TrEMBL record:
It holds the Pfam family Glyco_hydro_3. It comes from Streptomyces camelliae. Residues 822-944 form the Cellulose binding type IV domain. This is Glycoside hydrolase family 3 C-terminal domain-containing protein. One of its GO terms (molecular function) is hydrolase activity.
């Protein structure tokens, strides 16, 4: 071996610190090589013996998109466990499967894009299934546990490198690449940043991914928050990976920059280190970075900074120390332990919503009717792996109660489709093999839009009955008698070719559109209509008119089996690929009408009807006439077994709702209203009566609470109580501690989660539960002084089984600081630091930093700034303004005292000018500012 051998170079020396090794490697890379590292798919550098690398392996609740893997409950289901220790074990199992799969398939990456820590602020968000909770404390607790499991316990080398998604304030799929979330400073610091902060500070996060949307008028991919506060929260290098296609969106969709060179340079300078764009082709990103460098928009030092962060992750993954990698032989795949963990997680995620007269659990000899569109389904979502094992509710009930005691009716509508010529659509016979997998079990993307090795549908005099399901809003699926869904492939033919609806563009959904005396059948994936051609049924610009002949309504089958049963289980919910998923928000909390019909039919036939909701999000359902109801997220491979064990009482349910279940759509804010404080959103501020509150969940046991003790010492609250299982079975209880300021000077949460503990107790067992809560958890962001503040005064501590089921309470007095007037004579007023507003949108002050305010619709807006101290007196007001319009200022709700007129439009939204006027004021007053017209306000100053 010579000194020039790559293996002898300092960056290969495991005895040197990572920082020195990265310095050495950076110095050896050429500029072209470093630029090539900035794309998601980093090429190999053969002269240095460096392998290719890619960022991004989806692992939200199991390894996704790479073929069969253990499938755990959806993220919202993991949140419903309220059990960080369990979730840490799930993360550990997932990371071991990543390692095992990587060992046999180099396409599997060790930089995992998970978890999603976006807060579940709005239940109509299409990606609700991907988050953990609406509460930042619970979200950060679960996310921290999952990242610790993914990272592993070794002090130096990581098993996988987790990246948090999606930075920042991202809760809408509608216009997600162009919409801007208006986030006031208090919401930013008290809500959206908190889930990220506590997880990053815990030390198991390798990086973050910016979201597609804009925040305060600025795309997240050029957010100054990527520097501060994000990178101030940890001493480790953080790798920022763009979301797919987002770098190009800066120009193509958002029109925020004129050229891709400007956009790419701005993103890199803001803190983006790896550009996910144009698939595996890195040439366009490389060209943009090179041109930006040549145009002087970037320096080589800027490029080095980004490459250093990527290399930091690669070194932590032991890529350059394979002989020292503690995880190289620790990969495990589909082990008995992982299968048992999947079942345990699914069991712990079940939430018992209602259980009048102790209808549940069911006796072993109960005659059961199980009905509903999800009764014999084990649904996956976009971020699931392929199932190795499958358990539906029906299969779980057969296994637990015996097939002879369980009757089943799916409840689909059975229909025939007849053309005007009198022929029926039918599925021709075929001997084609039932094979839809590519090499090594990985999903073949070409088959996600429907297989082409099967013959297309035909039209014959004798017809086929199809199972029709209306998933809501008129979105239909049609299933052939052999169980396959009608689908359309790229060749445009309709075939019974899909095992389930799925794919980025779902090709298995249709809509019946009334037309003359029949219906057109529109295929939603292509937007085209179904027509019968000589060589088969296909989609075209014009379609045939079909008569829909209903052979049997779903509720008829449901009623038959319900009448003969002792208990009816109605399994309802959603298909995660339809009406609510990535790229598509829901429009209502209501259960789809088809499923409401089935529920009504079951309840009319048998009052002992239990509703089992299996869904990725909350519903507003009428449970008043139902004796019992449960909810679980789609629970992965063990969902059915877990559900049956809970229904039988083998496991006492202890899942808790991770978000508020509202009673109706009328309780919801606008999807784009990110002001949780002003909009009174989530359990923190909602003043109405929810269907079920945050933290709600019942048990088959009962629990007594007592002995509450609270104190303050060394900058923390200490709270303890006793919890006793007063029931007759082993059960888990989730003890929840909330706090609230009793007499706050500003709007504060009605109550906020401070800590929680899930514990298992045997009958009669008593446990002492203690919590330590830093006083900083009770701080708020004081816009008057631009920083966090703990307010002096009384705080009520609430302990119980949900945010509304409070069993114990006490009050402590905390010594902080009292409210102080804004020193406006010295500091002026930042436009965004309002206390209250009406009609305001927060926008970017410049492309790189700062916020301004403007009327949301270009019309008028009102701003209130309380307790502004003018000192001994001022005589003039000035304002930094852009656009055109009028600023009006008044004190204490009185008449307008100063009006600043910007009569001619400025050169652009960032071309601020300063206008002044006379204003005589002294002492402390509330300041009201009105904006009239498309005017941007950055800052108001006072002098004299």
């Amino acid at each position: 071996m010579t000194v020039d051998s790559p293996s002898a170079l300092p960056f290969r020396d495991p005895h040197l610190p990572f920082a020195k090794r990265i310095d050495d490697l950076l110095a050896r890379l050429t500029l072209d090589e470093k630029i090539s590292f900035l794309h998601q798919f980093t090429p190999a550098v053969e002269r240095l013996g460096i392998a290719a690398f890619r960022t991004g392996q989806e692992a939200l609740h199991g390894v996704a998109w790479m073929g069969p893997a253990t499938v755990f409950p959806q993220a919202v289901g993991l949140g419903a466990t309220w059990n960080p220790e369990l979730v840490r074990r799930v993360g550990e199992a997932v990371s071991k499967e990543v390692r095992a799969m990587r060992a046999r398939d180099e396409r599997v990456g060790l930089n995992v894009w998970s978890p999603t820590v976006n807060l579940l602020r709005h239940p109509l968000w299409g990606r609700n299934e991907e988050g953990y909770a609406e509460d930042p404390k619970l979200t950060s607790a679960i996310a921290t546990a999952y990242t610790h499991g993914l990272r592993g316990d070794h002090p130096l080398y990581w098993r996988t490198a987790p990246v948090l998604k999606h930075w920042l304030a991202h809760n809408n799929e509608t216009d997600r690449a162009t919409s801007s979330a208006s986030v006031r400073p208090r919401v930013l610091h008290e809500y959206d940043l908190r889930a990220f902060r506590e997880t990053v500070e815990a030390g198991a996060v390798a990086g973050v991914m910016p979201a597609y949307n804009l925040v305060n008028g600025r795309p997240n991919h050029v957010s100054p928050y990527l520097r501060d506060p994000l990178r101030t929260w940890t001493g480790e290098e953080l790798l920022v990976c763009s979301d797919a296609g987002a770098p190009s969106n800066l120009v193509d969709a958002e029109h925020y920059f004129d050229t891709h060179e400007e956009a790419t340079a701005a993103a890199l300078l803001a803190g983006v280190d790896s550009f996910t764009d144009h698939g595996t082709d890195g040439s366009q990103i490389v060209e943009r970075v090179r041109k930006a460098y040549e145009q002087g928009l970037l320096s080589e030092a800027d490029i080095d900074t980004a490459v250093r962060r990527q290399l930091s992750v690669r070194f932590r993954l032991a890529e350059f120390d394979p002989h020292y990698d503690p995880h190289v032989c620790t990969g495990e795949f589909d082990t008995p332990g992982h299968r048992a963990l999947a079942r345990e997680a699914a069991e712990q995620a079940v939430v018992l919503l209602k259980n009048d007269d102790d209808l549940l659990p069911l006796a072993p000899d109960t005659r059961i009717a199980v009905v509903g569109l999800l009764a014999d389904e084990c649904k996956l979502d976009w971020y699931s792996g392929s199932l190795l094992h499958r358990s539906t509710p029906l299969e779980g009930l057969y296994e637990r109660f015996g097939a002879e005691r369980v009757e089943f009716a799916e409840g689909v509508d059975r229909v025939r489709l007849r053309t005007a010529a009198g022929a029926f659509l039918q599925v021709p016979p075929t001997d084609a093999p039932d094979e839809a997998r590519g090499a090594e079990g990985a999903l073949d993307p070409a088959l996600l839009a429907g297989r082409t090795d099967l013959p297309p549908l035909t039209a014959e005099v004798t017809g086929t009955e199809f199972a029709l399901v209306d998933w809501g809003e008129g979105v239909l699926t049609l299933r052939a008698p052999d169980g396959r869904y009608l689908s359309v492939a790229e060749d445009g033919y309709v075939r019974a070719s899909a095992d389930q609806p799925g794919g980025w563009v779902v090709q298995e959904t249709f809509r019946l559109e009334p037309h003359h005396n029949g219906h057109l059948l529109r295929h939603l994936g292509t937007g085209r209509h179904v027509r019968v051609a000589a060589d088969g049924v296909q989609v075209a610009d014009s379609g045939d008119v079909f008569e829909v002949i209903t052979v049997e309504r779903g509720e008829e089958a449901v009623a038959r089996v319900a009448e003969a049963a002792e208990v009816v289980l109605v399994v309802a919910g959603n298909d995660p690929h339809i009406n609510g998923r990535e790229t598509e928000d829901r429009t209502t909390l209501a259960l789809p009408e088809h499923q409401q019909r089935l529920l009504r039919a079951a309840r009319a036939a048998n009052p002992r009807t239990v509703l089992i909701l299996t869904s990725a999000y909350p519903y507003a359902v009428d449970v008043a006439r139902l004796p019992a109801a449960l909810w679980t997220a789609h629970g992965g491979q063990a969902a059915g077994t877990a559900l049956a064990r809970v229904l039988a009482g083998d496991v006492s349910p202890a899942g808790r709702l991770p978000q508020t279940w509202y009673a109706s759509d009328a309780d919801l804010p606008d999807l784009f209203d990110y002001d949780v404080i002003g909009g009174r959103q989530t359990y923190l501020y909602f003043e109405g009566t929810p269907l079920f509150p945050f933290g709600h969940g019942l048990s088959y046991a009962s629990f007594g609470y007592g002995d509450l003790v609270a104190g303050v010492a060394d900058g923390a609250l200490t709270v303890s109580c006793s919890v006793t299982n007063t029931g007759d079975r082993v059960a888990d209880e989730v003890v929840q501690l909330y706090g609230r300021a009793v007499d706050p000077s500003v709007t504060r949460p009605r109550r906020e989660l401070l800590a929680h503990r899930r514990l298992t107790l045997t009958p009669g067992e008593r446990a002492e539960v203690s919590f330590g809560v830093p006083l900083s958890a009770l701080e708020f962001w004081d816009v008057a002084h631009d920083g966090p503040r703990l307010e002096t005064g009384p705080y009520e501590l609430l302990v119980g089984a949900s945010s509304e089921d409070v069993r114990l309470r006490t009050t402590v007095h905390l010594d902080g600081t009292g409210p102080a007037p804004r020193p406006v004579a010295r500091r002026g007023l930042a436009g965004v630091d309002f206390d209250e507003q009406s009609g305001v949108a927060i926008v970017d002050r410049t492309r790189t930093a700062g916020d301004a305010v403007t009327p949301a619709d270009g019309g008028t807006a009102e701003l209130l700034y309380r307790a502004c101290d003018f000192g001994p007196g001022v005589t003039e007001v000035s304002a930094q303004l852009a656009g055109e319009g009028v600023l009006e200022l008044s004190l204490d709700g009185g008449p307008v005292l100063a009006a600043l007129h910007l009569d001619s439009p400025t050169a652009g939204p960032y071309a601020y000018t300063t206008l002044g006027a006379g204003l005589v004021a002294e002492g402390v007053h509330d300041v009201r500012i009105g904006l009239r017209g498309p005017l941007r306000l950055a800052h108001v100053g006072f002098s004299g």
